[in-house]
Amino acid sequence: MVQYLLSIYQPDGPKPDAAVLDEISRKLDALNDELRAAGSWVFAGGLHPAASATVVRHKDSGSLITDGPYVEGKEHLGGFTIIDAPDLDAALSWATKLAAATTLPIEVRPFHGER
C-alpha cells in the first residue's frame, strides 16, 4: 500500500450557510466511515483559514517568522485526508468521492517511498 495525500482546496471568503456545512459534514463523516471500513483511512483534518497561518523561513542570519500564508491566492489548503491505497487509480477513486462530499477540488499526491 502507498500513502496518498488528498488535499482539499477551498476558496477564500465567507463560510457557506450552516445548512450547507451540515450536509458536507454528514457526507464527510460517511466517507471517513467508508474509508475506515475499507482499511484505507489513515488521518484527516480540517484547517483554520489561511489568515491564521504563520510562515517560518530559514535565513543565514536565523529564522524569519511572518504572519499569514506564504502565497496569496483566491483559494487555499482547507483540509486533507491521508489514505492507504494500492495504486493511483484507487486513490483517485477515493478523491472523486471526497470531491463529491466537499464540492471542492482535491489534489492527489503520493508520499515518497512505500510503507
Automatic annotation (TrEMBL):
<comment type="similarity">
    <text>Belongs to the YciI family.</text>
</comment>
<protein>
    <submittedName>
        <fullName>YciI family protein</fullName>
    </submittedName>
</protein>
<dbReference type="Pfam" id="PF03795">
    <property type="entry name" value="YCII"/>
</dbReference>
<feature type="domain" description="YCII-related">
    <location>
        <begin position="19"/>
        <end position="102"/>
    </location>
</feature>
<dbReference type="InterPro" id="IPR005545">
    <property type="entry name" value="YCII"/>
</dbReference>
<dbReference type="InterPro" id="IPR011008">
    <property type="entry name" value="Dimeric_a/b-barrel"/>
</dbReference>
